[in-house]
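User: Let's play a game. I give you a shape written as tokens, and you guess the letters that built it. Ready? Here's round one.
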């Protein structure tokens, strides 16, 4: 299965706090993609806690929430206890996250250059 990062998250409220997720914990939202069998197993494992994405590109796909900061897309599987676990090495996940950060930095630098060029009536060609 793959977990694809959504641009949404929530904080755990006092009412929903647990020992594993105390109040204030940030939970990042991911859409899950996989075979029908994998997704059905996930739905059964989650039971009443099963949620789907409510809007956007991944609407109606199963939603997985984690407090881990992961890359935009990671390989995951369902373990025998019914929990989603990342199946990529920490080095692979870190490398993906660093690529994303580098891309954001490069985009911001380009944005600044284009703004500066526009101030002087210049055009930046890519």
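Assistant: Ready! My guess for every position:
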């Amino acid at each position: 299965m793959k977990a694809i990062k959504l641009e949404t998250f929530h904080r755990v409220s006092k009412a929903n706090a647990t020992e594993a997720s105390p109040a204030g914990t940030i939970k990042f939202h991911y859409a899950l993609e996989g075979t029908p069998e994998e997704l059905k197993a996930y739905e059964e494992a989650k039971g009443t806690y099963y949620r789907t994405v409510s809007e956007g590109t991944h609407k109606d796909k199963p939603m997985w929430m984690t407090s881990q900061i992961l890359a935009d897309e990671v390989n995951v599987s369902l373990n025998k206890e019914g929990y989603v676990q990342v199946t990529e090495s920490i080095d692979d996940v870190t490398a993906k996250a660093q690529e994303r950060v580098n891309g954001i930095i490069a985009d911001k630098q380009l944005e600044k250059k284009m703004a500066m060029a526009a101030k002087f009536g210049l055009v930046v060609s890519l």
